[in-house]
Amino acid sequence: MMRTAPAIGEARLTRFAELIEQRLGLQYAGSSLAELEAIMTARMRELRCRSFDAYLKQLESDVSMHEELRELTAKLTIGETYFFRAPEQLSVFSEVAIPRLTQGDPARPIRILCAGCSTGEEPYTLAMILRELGPLAPAEVSILAIDINPEALAKAQRGSYSAWAMRATPPDCVEKYFRRERAQFVLNESVKAMVRFDERSIACEDYQFWQPHRFDIIFCRNVIMYLSARVVGEVIARFARALAPDGFLFLSHAEPLRGISQAFHVQHAQGAFYYVLRKPSGPVIPPRPGARSVSPHKDAAQPLTSPVPRDRLIVAPAPPSLEAMSPAEKGASLSLGAALMKTEQYDEALATLEALAPADRLDPDVLLMTAIIQVERGKLDLAADLCSSLLALDGLNAAAHYLTALCHEHGGQRAAAIDSYRVGVYLEPAFAMPHLRLGLMFRREGDRQSARRELHSASILLAQEDPARVLLFGGGFSRSTLIDLCASELRMCEGPN
User: Fold this and answer.
1) What is the rounded CA–CA span in Å between residue 484 and residue 149?
2) Fewer CB within a 10 Å sphere, N or C end of the chain?
3) What CATH number should be reported for the domain holding residue 120?
4) How many domains does the chain contain in total?
5) Is the distance from CB of 217 to CB of 247 less than 8 angstroms?
6) What are the tens digits of pLDDT across the range 215-256?
């Protein structure tokens, strides 16, 4: 009997990792390769394969490939989950998604997909929530749960769980939907009947399964973080195709779609982030002419309300100086608009951008620059309209969400401002300015604990912020001035909350 497997070697291990990525979509690199090597070595020992080439031949054989991939999947995808995980998103599911989807048609069937369902806690949680809605629940609901791990699906179908899986389950739901059998909690058959399980990989294309508009809600939490970048893009495209036009997508907090897909708008409610499918592309409506400013006061032009004097910024690698620009660049262009804005010639910068061809004025970079200029001019209604147009093109633009939040804040819409600042941070965790604005808001409101958290994050991020971004979003303040502002505000937050 073979007791040890031969050394695999880096080249062969990399080859195996590439094969796993191609067949299963899972990504192994860096330190995770050691985990893959251990699994591969153990599997070769089980099969008594005396060489990597012999194992690879067996893996690639048409006869044994499917079963061997199933065996590998069970070893490579051991997911840890539990009932009622991520309660904020579950609140959005029951209090936002379901009411919105059924509002126009109470009899509309609601079709839910749990992708990467592991041992079933998530789809069963959704089933219990729907039962708890009582008469407010949709008249017809289907829940389909899929996973590539056959062992996890077998456990899900048994519906028997340990106390550890129950740790966040409300006591009344434990009482209502489970019975104790020794150390296990066995799920009620009425809940089990609401969920159908299927062994399937989201990494594999199947047009029959991913039919257009097949699902109203897709949950896929803590799954795509394990997939390669190539596969993630393909998976999200399938989700976009399979969702109904008003459909909802729930990912984990650590899986933002920025830079991956433009098919969704990010939303924030109940302390949770989620995505809604964008409407089909259409013409972007430019800002309405002659919209009034939110505030007639001169101070409204300053995004940061503080006693610190404004500094004129000329920082590389910011937009070029006017003197360094060629005659061609000094024509109507984004570069000229940026250079004029850099020297706080806001009216001239705006005139330059408005002189661009109509199609060029709808370019995302031009829309963003114009919105920044309008904020500096105090024309916050116009800035909000521009951000709306930009978000219609790119719903995951963190800067547009930040400027939208700024407009909400100056308009006295506190909750909307906080939501939009949160979205900006979610989409771009290294973006300092949303943290700073949230810190200033919380400090003014007397929430010193929250203010300290946000101002501390802002101070750290500002030290690393790109100078050009400080110029664009710093409201006329230099990096050092903004960091000093954080320190000053933090001193005001000293003492117990």
Assistant:
1) 53
2) N
3) 3.40.50.150
4) 3
5) yes
6) 999 999 988 888 888 889 999 999 999 999 999 999 988 788
Mean pLDDT score of the chain: 82
Contact call for residues 273 and 252 (beta carbons, < 8 A): no
CB 429 within 8 A of CB 453: no
Query: For residue 107, is it left (φ>0), alpha (ψ between -120 and 50) or beta?
Result: alpha
Q: What CATH number does residue 410 fall under?
A: 1.25.40.10
Instruction: Supply 52's token pair.
Output: 């990597």
Q: What is the pLDDT of residue 51?
A: 77
Give the pairing of strands 110-115 and 160-161.
Answer: unpaired
pLDDT of 31 over the 70 cut: no
The answer to whether the CB of 73 falls within 8 A of the CB of 146 is: no
Q: Do residues 181 and 241 share a domain?
A: yes
Closest CA to 247 of 122, 131, 120, 113: 113
Residue 315's pLDDT band, with cuts at 50, 70 and 90, is: very low
Mutual angle of helices 364-376 and 398-410, in 10-degree steps: 30
Most distant CA atoms of the chain, gap in Å: 86
Find out whether 127 and 96 touch, Cβ atoms under 8 Å. no
Which residue, 277, 312, 327, sits at the end of a domain?
A: 277
User: For residue range 332-345, what is the model confidence (pLDDT) as tens digits?
Assistant: 577 887 788 777 78
